[in-house]
């Protein structure tokens, strides 16, 4: 499992997470099973399977917004993915 966290939203209100490690390449299934992203101010966890986050270099999440929802919101509190 790889865990990322964010403490501040950007100008657009998004909390952005990079879906790669220090080598600037996406993680793959041989390295990790899932990516967990924690938005500290919202106390919100997002859990992504490898096949989902490999599509992105970065992911933008909007946990506190009622007007703007991320297409990734379906992964919020996705604890069923943890084995």
Query: How many distinct helices?
Result: 1
> Stretches where pLDDT falls below 50 for ≥5 residues?
none
> What name does CATH use for the topology?
Trna Endonuclease, Chain: A, domain 1
Q: What is the distance, rounded to the nearest whole angstrom, between the alpha carbons of the first and last residues? A: 11 Å
Q: What is the helix fraction of residues, given as a range? A: under 10%
Mean pLDDT: 85
What is the radius of gyration computed over CA atoms, rounded to a whole number of angstroms? 12 Å
Shape: globular
Secondary-structure content class: mainly beta
Main-sheet strand order equals: 1-3-4
User: How many separate domains make up the residues?
Assistant: 1
Give the beta-strand count. 5
Largest sheet: 3 strands, mixed
**H/E element order:** EEEEHE
Question: What share of the residues does DSSP label as strand, in percent?
Answer: 25-35%
Give the class-level CATH name: Alpha Beta
- Specify the CATH architecture: 3-Layer(aba) Sandwich
């Amino acid at each position: 499992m790889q865990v990322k966290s964010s403490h501040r939203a950007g100008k657009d209100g998004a909390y952005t997470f990079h879906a790669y490690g220090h080598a600037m390449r996406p993680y793959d299934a041989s390295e990790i099973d899932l990516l967990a992203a924690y938005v500290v101010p919202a106390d919100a966890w997002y859990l992504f399977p490898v096949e989902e986050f490999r599509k992105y270099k970065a992911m933008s999440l909007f946990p506190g917004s009622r007007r703007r929802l991320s297409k990734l919101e379906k992964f919020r509190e996705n604890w069923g993915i943890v084995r």
